[in-house]
Design brief:
308 residues, mainly alpha, 10 helices, extended
Length: 308
């Protein structure tokens, strides 16, 4: 073998050894990709478990404090539970977190307001600082309830927006021969993408229709969770069809027509209020610039003449 051939063989062998060493240090391929993905998923699961454990520990401490103070039972707790259910906050620890916020947030905001009050004004007296701290306490006392009621209002608006389409699907299901439980479950599945809030409520109602001995109780629970006039009308219609055996499709078709008419009337009412609503912005933002454009040159000329 010639010396050139020997050098080529040695170079190729050296390159192969270096490449093998590189692949050993930095593996790349389907197996290594799966290994890295598994390691990443395991680390994410571990960190998620750690966060969940910390959260459960914190919630357990809050629950212990509430039970020690005997704040986990009574009429106020029942009202708070109803409020959270209507807001769609149905996690197992939702009531504990809500009551913990109502207990700790006033104290925390009051102390923070009392501490940062001198930063607003260095000449603030002790009485004024106390008033600022009391304002922080009041804000903390009402903030959780205000946030819950705001969430309830937004949820109700979203449910009412998707209700007419859901009623049309109810009519189709009833005309196809589906029973009440099957129709509610099918409509909940069909509208999950467009109206998830309404689909959540209807899905829960379908489950309750399946295991509660009295179907009227399941319908009443739907009315209690949403507590709006359209849902109450729907519940009354479904209850009457169950009690008196009236045709479900015909009753739902009439109810859907009423809801669409009501929505059209609300749109017309908003359109009729538009001119009155635009009056104040026109007066504030349009008339002053108009006066400046019309009268401004004359005022400038008069000022020039007076100056000369």
């Amino acid at each position: 073998m010639s010396p050139v051939a020997v050098e080529i063989v040695v170079a190729l062998a050296s390159f192969a050894a270096a490449y093998a060493f590189y692949r050993g240090l930095f593996p790349d391929g389907s197996m290594s990709g799966r290994v890295r993905s598994h390691v990443k998923r395991r680390s994410e699961n571990t960190s998620g478990q750690v966060r969940a454990a910390r959260r459960q520990k914190s919630v357990g401490m809050v629950r212990s404090v509430l039970e020690y103070l005997k704040l986990t039972r009574g009429e106020e707790v029942r009202k708070s539970t109803e409020l959270l259910i209507q807001a769609g906050w149905r996690a197992p620890d939702a009531l504990t977190i809500f009551l913990g916020l109502r207990l700790g947030l006033p104290l925390a905001l009051g102390i923070v307001a009392f501490i940062i009050a001198p930063g607003i004004s260095h000449t603030m007296s002790l009485l004024t600082r106390t008033g600022v701290g009391f304002a922080g306490i009041m804000l903390g006392a009402y903030a959780p309830s205000i946030a819950a009621r705001n969430a309830i209002q937004k949820r109700r608006e979203k449910i009412q927006l998707g209700l007419p389409d859901a009623l049309d699907l109810f009519v189709i299901c009833a005309e196809a021969g589906l029973g009440l439980e099957a129709a509610v479950g099918r409509v909940a599945r069909e509208i999950r993408a467009s109206a998830p809030e309404l689909a959540d409520e209807l899905g829960l109602t379908a489950v309750e229709l399946g295991f509660l001995p009295n179907r009227r109780d399941a319908l009443n629970n739907l009315s209690r969770r949403v507590d709006t006039a359209p849902i109450r009308n729907l519940v009354n219609t479904l209850a009457q069809t169950e009690r008196y055996g009236t045709p479900l499709a015909q009753a739902l078709r009439v109810l859907a027509g009423e809801f669409r008419t009501m929505r059209m009337m609300k749109a017309e009412e908003k359109a009729a209020r538009l001119p009155a609503t635009l009056t104040v912005p026109m007066i504030v933002f349009i008339l002053p610039p108009l006066f400046i454009v019309l009268i401004g040159p004359a005022i400038v000329q008069i000022m020039d003449k007076l100056h000369h």
